[in-house]
Amino acid sequence: xxxxxxxxxxxxxxxxxxxxxxxxxxxxxxxxxxxxxxxxxxxxxxxxxxxxxxxxxxxxxxxxxxxxxxxxxxxxxxxxxxxxxxxxxxxxxxxxxxxxxxxxxxxxxxxxxxxxxxxxxxxxxxxxxxxxxxxxxxxxxxxxxxxxxxxxxxxxxxxxxxxxxxxxxxxxxxxxxxxxxxxxxxxxxxxxxxxxxxxxxxxxxxxxxxxxxxxxxxx
Length: 219
Prior knowledge:
This protein is of the alpha+beta class. The protein has helices at about 10-20, 50-55, 60-75, 95-100, 105-120, 135-155, 190-205, and strands at about 45, 85, 125-135, 160-165, 170, 175-185, 210-215. The strands form 2 sheets. Strands 3, 4, 5, 6 and 7 form a 5-stranded antiparallel sheet that branches. A two-stranded parallel ribbon has the order 1-2. A hairpin with a 2-residue loop joins strand 5 and strand 6 (about 175-185). Helix 3 (about 60-75) runs parallel beside helix 4 (about 95-100) and helix 6 packs antiparallel against helix 7 (about 190-205). The chain is elongated, with a radius of gyration of 23 Å. The two termini are about 30 Å apart.
């Protein structure tokens, strides 16, 4: 079950029905297999390459990996049939896997909140992602350098980047990202006004008028 095998109108439902009626004994699929399916007599669930989830470059990777692995694991052993879950990993001692194994959501939550407080990530702080896009890589680089200066001057110690993302070119646009970490306190409104002014000044520079600037908050 994946995007390719479920393109036609009734393909998804047919795969589910065949598995439910035991016309199919083994169901292989992408993450869509995990979403809200409740089957009797599923005795084994296997998760391949869990490290791709655990090592994804995103501050929410731990949280998302736990959520998905726990959700997939819950597909096995429902009703009267005992279940087994097999997770393929090079990091068997990874804390996320330990929390999945013990089904300890509370401990996972506490550890993640402590980490978010230490490194100033949501929900403790506001994380603003600023993305610059242009068809010319050199223009993106120059625009990023020009924007970096006022950002660092105004928000000293709170700016990460600019950096190319993992996928640095989409639909013929080169991309560079900044991340701005702002405290959730009474200075937030002032910081917002300062950022808006910096972006207005940046976009008024003639050579960067064609650079697209996209803002995402806590995304």
